[in-house]
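Propose amino acids for all 591 sites.
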């Protein structure tokens, strides 16, 4: 039965950690935090008579869910009422339980709680059954905790009755994923499948039995998701007839200049959530540039029609800046105007952060791919020396505003790129790597640049005495064309349309290792690391880029390198710290 929105909006606040092993998700006491919005929904489909309301009793500091779950005449079965909240939720991926502090005025037995919006596969068979759900029975006449193990939730439930078909305990496909527990997306309270009056008071919703890592301890976590690159999106659109000519933009020679970012987003693949003035965006977290930009209201329909656009009238923390923004990427300019607002990264509010409201986004032939893409903008994590107007990055502002305990951040990108990754600010998660971290000093406070002492492909030396940057905005390994051509020739890889290399998959087992010495420390990439299986063919994960002096010659260690080696960006000590990425077991992706 399809729910339909009908009523007044209410709000509640997001609180922080309440105890060593609890993370507060929602209270109604006006505690300082991010405001979320409740919206009540009923079930009017096919003559449904169920009605309900959700209000906030400020005097008693509770949310009040009232209504009646009635028989649907055409189905001769009870319908439902529900109240849902959306907004910014904390990461509860390291917790064991969801805990509701609730009180029911009667013994109504149809209460359920859900979060997220996933369908059990295949989704078309369970179209109306979405989200991970659990039954609960509140105490009657007094407040008490209802503890619901997260591994008791399921997204495999009957879309007519709301009853579970299988649970996480007996069906792994029905389990909440790590990605979902890192961002609940929505929480809903239901009266469903049982006829009767509903009178429920909610004092709080929290997660319990959380490990110290989940309760922050100075660490702030941001999930990062892999998307198709603009090149791959454009290729797919070409194959389907949405583009009339090949997407032939290439990474052009990068000119010298402090405001030129090294990344080229036609190859970028990892993005994550931020807020600007309370408005949601998905951005590439890019260590190869240093400004923040998101689409503004002036961004044209044909480029930004699928993207949210920043609206200063919706933000009480907006400040005018007015300086023009223009940056030249390898494939075209991005232009706009600077404003200031609160930029929220994870649970951190960076106040007064200058950012660009972009009006023009030019990726050349890839413009339409950006319009159809997953990311809306970017957040630079380089140094302010390469930002326009030397504006401090949000990370530098976190340090200045004393929002984090340690001036470090780190990327955790798993070897299986389809899995959720994580960007951690303010500390190091030791579960993300194995062995000891080795230190590689920075040679420049521009990009995260280190010395590349040597590079060998098998026994052949292909580079020496060069520079390398660790760049989350680039997906492959990029280097001088002459050296890349030599590696590709030795491997038997073929250049396709002048942009990327493919290789016969059967050759993979015979290929040698790539050995790299950075700052005196040795790192190795095997064929399993640099030969990628993509859409039934093997991609040789190298690309040519010629950067002239004084910036170059330059190698870019993109996410092919960062999936193999856990990379800690140590701003305070001006160094990189690296170790092998820990292989996370499949069981750790469900609770």
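Proposal:
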């Amino acid at each position: 039965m399809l729910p339909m929105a009908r009523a007044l909006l209410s709000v509640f606040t997001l609180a922080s950690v309440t105890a060593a092993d609890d993370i507060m998700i929602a209270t109604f006491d006006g505690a300082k935090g991010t405001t979320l919005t409740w919206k009540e929904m009923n079930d009017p489909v096919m003559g449904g008579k169920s009605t309900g309301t959700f209000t906030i009793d400020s005097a008693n500091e509770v949310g009040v869910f009232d209504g009646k779950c009635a028989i649907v005449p055409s189905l001769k079965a009870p319908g439902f009422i529900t109240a849902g909240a959306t907004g910014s939720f904390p990461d509860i991926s390291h917790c064991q339980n969801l805990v509701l502090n609730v009180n029911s005025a009667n013994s109504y037995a149809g209460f359920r709680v859900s979060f997220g919006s996933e369908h059990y596969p295949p989704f078309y068979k369970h179209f109306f059954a979405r989200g991970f759900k659990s039954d609960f029975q509140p105490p009657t006449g007094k407040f008490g905790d209802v503890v619901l193990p997260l591994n008791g939730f399921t997204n495999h439930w009957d879309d007519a009755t709301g009853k579970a078909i299988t649970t996480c305990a007996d069906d792994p496909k029905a389990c909440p994923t790590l990605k979902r527990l890192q961002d609940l997306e929505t929480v809903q309270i239901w009266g469903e499948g049982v006829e009767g009056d509903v009178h429920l008071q909610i004092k709080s919703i929290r997660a319990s039995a959380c490990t110290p890592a989940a309760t922050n301890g100075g660490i702030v976590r941001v999930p990062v998701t892999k998307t198709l690159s603009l090149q791959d999106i454009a290729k797919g659109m070409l194959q389907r007839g949405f583009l009339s000519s090949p997407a032939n933009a290439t990474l052009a020679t990068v000119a010298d200049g402090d405001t030129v970012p090294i990344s080229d987003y036609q190859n970028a693949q990892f993005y994550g959530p931020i807020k600007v003035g309370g408005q949601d965006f998905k951005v590439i977290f890019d260590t190869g540039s240093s400004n923040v930009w998101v689409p503004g209201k002036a961004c044209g329909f044909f480029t930004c029609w699928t993207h949210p656009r920043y609206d200063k009238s919706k933000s009480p923390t907006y400040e005018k800046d007015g300086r023009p923004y223009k940056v030249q990427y390898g494939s075209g300019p991005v232009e706009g105007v600077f404003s200031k607002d609160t930029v929220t990264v994870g649970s951190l509010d960076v106040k007064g952060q200058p950012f660009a409201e972009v009006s023009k986004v030019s990726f050349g032939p890839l413009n339409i791919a950006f319009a159809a893409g997953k990311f809306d903008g970017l957040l630079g994590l380089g140094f302010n020396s390469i930002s326009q107007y030397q504006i401090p990055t949000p990370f530098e502002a976190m340090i200045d505003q004393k929002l984090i305990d340690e001036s470090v951040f780190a990327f955790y990108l798993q070897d299986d790129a389809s899995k959720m990754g994580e960007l951690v600010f303010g500390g190091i998660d030791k579960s993300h790597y194995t062995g000891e971290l080795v230190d590689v000093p920075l040679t420049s406070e521009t990009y995260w640049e280190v010395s590349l002492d040597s590079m060998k492909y098998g026994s052949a030396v292909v580079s020496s005495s060069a520079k390398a940057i660790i760049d989350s905005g680039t997906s492959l390994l990029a280097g001088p064309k002459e050296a890349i051509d030599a590696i590709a020739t030795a491997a038997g890889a073929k250049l396709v349309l002048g942009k990327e290399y493919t290789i016969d998959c059967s050759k993979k087992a015979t290929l040698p290792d790539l050995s790299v010495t950075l700052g005196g420390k040795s790192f190795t990439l095997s064929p399993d690391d640099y030969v990628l299986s993509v859409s039934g063919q093997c991609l040789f994960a190298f690309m040519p880029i010629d950067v002239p002096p004084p910036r170059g010659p330059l190698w870019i260690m993109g996410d092919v390198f960062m999936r193999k080696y856990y990379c800690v960006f140590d701003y305070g000590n001006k160094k990189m710290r690296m170790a092998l990425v820990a292989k996370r077991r499949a069981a750790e992706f469900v609770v």
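Residues 1-20, 213-217, 228-268, 585-591 have pLDDT under 50 and may be disordered. The two ends are 29 Å apart (CA to CA).
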